[in-house]
Amino acid sequence: MKSTIAIAAALLALSLGVQTYAADRVRVGYSSITANRLPIWHGEEHGIFARHGLAVELLLIPSGTTGVQALVAGEVQLLSATGTTAVAATLRGADLAIIGSLGVIEYKLVAMPNIRAAEELRGKRVGITRFGSFTDFGSRRVLRHLGLNPDKDVVLLQTGIAGATQRLMAMFSGTMDATLTQVDTIFLAQIKLGKEVRILGGLLDTGYRATGADIMASRRFLKDKPDIARRFLMAIAEGIHLARSKKDLALRTLGRRLKETDPRILEAQYKTFVIDAFPTKPYPDEVTVRFSLEELDREFPGAKDKSVSQFIDASFMKAIDQSGFIDKLYQ
């Protein structure tokens, strides 16, 4: 059966014009162990990267800010992290571009149940990963929407914890009083731990949509190695298709990577990301980049007036799309 699948995949690749390559080595960073990395994990575990001639080394780099620093330094060639960090780095002078996105995710600012309203956060600790990270950016936006000054009314606590689930666990242990987290982790706390949280507000409430796993690279890499970038995005699109078409396989991969055995949690993760978030065609999300520029205008005056094209490069996805590669996956 496995040999039949492999032969079919090879024939599909040939029919779509995918050539046979000597494997190109590429280091790919990702900023957290969360379910929105599933297409990347599929690429590694199920031979998709290899089928596209890529020898990918995956590196966990907790915090998108740290990941972007590694990208700028050339320690990784591609990075999966929240696009806001790439936008901020580019505004600081880095030459980066977002080339793909794994979809929009809903984030909530949650607190311990004894905190009944946002006003009660005054003087309390709001846990973020690091200053300049997406959790910093997102928490500040929600706090302002709730009528609080993030620099004066609360203590923004750098925890170094990139994973939303791990931050929530730290909150329950008393490390912090509130944190920004994904909706699926709230469900996890309720089901697995019997813990309740107080939802104080969310990014969508502020009119902002957020991506959790954008794909980015330096423009120099994209200029020097465009074919590697294109093949990587083809593999990501194929990983998304595999997740959608082989649910049982996706659930097993999530279980291994997240070290989770509760089927209710895995089902919730599958729905949140594979069904509700992952796009069939992972183009860079121009809307979220525009929102990021408007928010970052506070720190970088004039950012909101900049063109989105300075921060994304959709040409790779456009070429893949126009080739018919993704459409044929779903036929």
Secondary-structure blueprint:
Blueprint (H helix, E strand, L loop, with lengths): L1 H14 L8 E7 L7 H8 L2 H4 L2 E7 L3 H10 L4 E4 L1 H9 L4 E6 L2 E2 L1 E5 L13 E4 L5 H12 L9 E4 L5 H9 L5 E5 H10 L5 E5 L7 E2 L2 E5 H6 L1 H20 L1 H12 L4 H13 L10 H11 L18 H9 L1 H5 L2
Task: Give a short overview.
This protein is an alpha/beta fold. It folds into 2 domains: 2-104 and 211-329, D-Maltodextrin-Binding Protein, domain 2; 107-202, 3-Layer(aba) Sandwich (D-Maltodextrin-Binding Protein, domain 2). It is 46% helix and 17% strand.
Q: Please state roughly what percent of the residues sit in beta strands, choosing from under 5%, 5-15%, 15-25%, 25-35%, 35-45% or over 45%.
A: 15-25%
CATH topology of the largest domain: D-Maltodextrin-Binding Protein, domain 2
The percent range for helix content is 40-55%
The CATH architecture of the largest domain can be given as 3-Layer(aba) Sandwich
- Low-confidence stretches are 1-21
Structural class: alpha/beta
- Which CATH first-tier class of the largest domain would you pick? Alpha Beta
In DSSP terms (H or I, runs of 4 or more residues), the helix count works out at 15
One letter per element, helices H and strands E, the order comes to: HEHHEHEHEEEEHEHEHEEEHHHHHHH
Compute the number of structural domains: 2
- Principal-axis shape equals globular
Mean pLDDT: 88
